Amino acid sequence: MNQPHSDSVLPSSSRRSFLKSTTTAAVAGALAAQMPIARSAHAAGSDVLKVGLIGCGGRGSGAAAQAMKADPNVRLTAMGDAFADRLQNSLDAMRKELGDEFDAKVKVPEENRFVGFDAYQNVINSGVDVVILTSPPHFRPAHLAAAVAAGKHVFAEKPVAVDAPGIRSVLATCEEAKKKGLSIVSGLCYRYENAKRETIKRVHDGAVGDVVALHVSYNTNFLWMHPRKETWSDMEWQLRNWLYFAWLSGDHIVEQHVHSLDKAAWAMHDEPPVRASGMGGRQVRTGPEFGHIFDHHAVVFEYANGVKLFSFCRQQDGAARDVSDYVMGTKGTADLMQHSIRSGGDHWKYRGEKTNMYQAEHNELFASIRSGNPINNGLYMSRSSMMAIMGRMATYTGQIITWDQALASQEQLGPGEYRWGDLPVPPVAMPGQTQFA
Length: 437
Prior knowledge:
Elements: H1 12-21, H2 25-34, H3 37-43, E1 49-54, H4 58-70, E2 74-81, H5 84-98, H6 102-105, E3 113-115, H7 119-124, E4 130-133, H8 140-149, E5 153-156, H9 164-180, E6 184-186, H10 194-204, E7 211-220, H11 234-240, H12 246-249, H13 252-255, H14 258-267, E8 275-281, E9 296-302, E10 308-315, E11 322-329, E12 332-335, E13 340-343, E14 346-349, H15 357-371, H16 378-397, E15 401-402, H17 403-408
Parallel strand pairs: 1-2, 1-4, 2-3, 4-5, 5-6, 7-10
Antiparallel strand pairs: 7-11, 8-9, 8-15, 9-10, 11-12, 12-13, 13-14
Helix pairs in contact: 4-5, 4-15, 8-9, 9-16, 14-16
């Protein structure tokens, strides 16, 4: 299977030449220090890759099960979450998903089941080789930095941050991962689907001509919400309903619509837009149980060459659903979700092998570890997440926000410390009044 767009440590041909040339004991020792963990584990007499799950919600449980299916010699050996009940629910979900394979694949003793704000570091320190990062997005930069510092390969769910300081941290961490020869695979899963890859390849090869505009929508219904219990502190209530607090999710333009923006960014060769303007608000989902995020956003991103990306997302019950992405060019239009291109009288549609993109991203992660050819999705996962954050900045403030302004922003979302107790909910953003920071 072809690798997605990535920034590998060395091209495969250069890597082979490099390995052939390292014959002295001194160089061999230096190389061993950078050797992918899978190889060093195998050299020590075991080819089992140990996996740690950090964040035991539904996506985390699914990702862990997919990791167990990605390679015959992987084992889940550690788990961590803020809450013990979520950890147990995750084990139950994986038992159902893995069936007869559960007992052989999931080996998480009680002493490797960690709960609390420091659970992530305990998982990383437990002797795992690979970590799956699926906690609320606010925590991704710190968790990723800790994993790479400890020499772990990473699967990082989208988005990778909720603010610009977080994005800058992730970019620096991914550069460090390159130096260490570690794989970082992103949960922007559409890039791991064969049909999307072939459609985008054709766009890049000129099937629609010069791109003149893009249009993406992620309009859907309400998502889950857990009614507050009297025993929950503010912190616990917000963590259990992390979707509805910008410090934890980034708002749904960042948490969910990032998929749509990522496909558009992919079509544009991952060059960032130069500015964004937009509007949004909170019309239907107005109760305090829904925190303080918006329920709709509309953003126009403009590129240096004048191309505009028209972007819409909405989470409102009873409204029409629309999840679609279009790339319009001088010769025709690509429908990315339908994997089809119309150009003049020609109509191409992908009819090749279908893939489960969620499984494919784990298959390719573990194959990269085994082969010693790291995947590093750091640049595009950071830029796409930053695009979504930039869009939120535009809708919250009502101002035109440039890429340079957005990326340099000093606004850090979230509390100064993590503790169980009071945590006031910020006011709902008001365009024209909320200031860019």
